[in-house]
Amino acid sequence: LLKLEELLMLSLGLYLFSFMNYSWLLFALLFLAPDVGLLGYLVNTKTGAAFYNITHHKGIAIALYLTGSEYAVPLLQFAGLLMFAHSSFDRILGYGLKYTNNFKATHLGLIGK
């Protein structure tokens, strides 16, 4: 049921993106960009979890999109939709927001379990 919910959110992100004047190729090329947050794990698990969670938090994604909508800044809308869609896709695959004790420990349970 959770995966279906995430699939619908991914679909919403793609639907909203279809109204933007950006290319689908650009969207596809940048789709994994939020995973730059994984670089925090080069420091330690606490920093890695913080960076990952910031780049995968749907609340932040929605805030970016709405701010871009309110102030007519399409780049913020694009970034928000990209983050939202990417985060939904990750959660379909079982990658949730990270806990600080272990890379595999997420709010959805252990990755790979």
What this model shows, in words?
By secondary structure, the protein is mainly alpha-helical. 58% of the residues lie in helices and 4% in strands. It is built from five helices and two strands, in the order αααααββ. It has helices at 2-17, 24-30, 45-55, 58-70, 74-92; strands at 105-106, 109-110. The protein has a two-stranded antiparallel sheet. Helix 1 packs antiparallel against helix 5 (74-92) and helix 4 runs antiparallel to helix 5. The longest helix is centred in the last third of the chain and has 19 residues, at 74-92. The two termini are 17 Å apart. The mean pLDDT is 96.
Structure summarized in a few sentences:
The chain is mostly helical. The chain contains five helices and two strands, in the order H-H-H-H-H-E-E.
